[in-house]
Every structure is written in structure tokens, then in C-alpha cells.
């Protein structure tokens, strides 16, 4: 439920060029896109976690999309053939888009990205490491705890009596 004071962003604020790309192609580029756009993505995820309101993170989301679009434009300009072969291999080699069947085309694609864009594929486990995000955005103020003035006083604690037949944890006493 929302109130009449709730404001939604305008359509102009939400309009951004979409990334029209298939799942195999997105999976093929995932490691390099993640590395290239890591700063923008971390900033966006931090904003969403801290603000708890997606309307306040529209600019950060647009930055992630712009970075991804820029990466795919660079791939299209310099490594389109290798990228296409790799994504086609992922698409047609297994039903779960597994990487294990396409290591040869992956190595060719990785070499092309390294040679032309000077970007190495991140090592296994890179994205699982904890990272500290340095941001210029101020930390939002924390909400005060809810107070209920008409709440009844808590009941007094009853003294604990020993159980009538002992306890199942008799060896711990």
C-alpha cells in the first residue's frame, strides 16, 4: 500500500538504451563485463543495499548499463568473430550453457580481448572475494527504532523452578 505522497520517477528518468543480447552471448562475456564494470556495479549494489529504495539508485543503474554497452561496442569493434564463435559454442554444445565444452573457443576469445582491449580474464574465484567499496555518495541516515507509546509493560519474569523429573541434559550439570 502506498500513500498519495509517494512519487514515482518519470518515464524520461527511467528510459535508457537496453542491452539487446542473448543469454549465451551475455554468458560468454560475463567475466570480462564483470571485471570492466566492477566499480559501477559495486556502487549500484551498495546504493540498493543502503538506500532500501530503488528510486534513489537510478543514476547508478544507468551507469552500469552504459558501461556494459560500451564494453559490447568495444567487443563488436575488435573481437566480434571470436566472440560470436564462443557464444555459439556455449549455445549449441550443451543444454545448460556449460563452459567445459568450449575451452578452445574461450581461449581464442580471451586472447583476442587481451590483445585488443588489454583486459585479462579474471581468475577463478575473483568475484567471490570480499571487497571494500570506496564511494563518494554519503551514507544514508539510519532510521530510528520504532517506538510505541501505548505498549503495555512487559510481564515480570517468573522464577525458574527445577523440573519435576530431572532433565535430559543431566550429564551437563
TrEMBL record:
Transmembrane segments: none annotated. Pfam families: CHCH. Residues 79-113 form the CHCH domain. InterPro entries: CHCH, NDUFA8. Signal peptide: none annotated. It is found in: Mitochondrion inner membrane. One of its GO terms (biological process) is mitochondrial electron transport, NADH to ubiquinone. This is NADH dehydrogenase [ubiquinone] 1 alpha subcomplex subunit 8. It comes from Penaeus vannamei (Whiteleg shrimp). The lineage of its organism: Eukaryota, Metazoa, Ecdysozoa, Arthropoda, Crustacea.
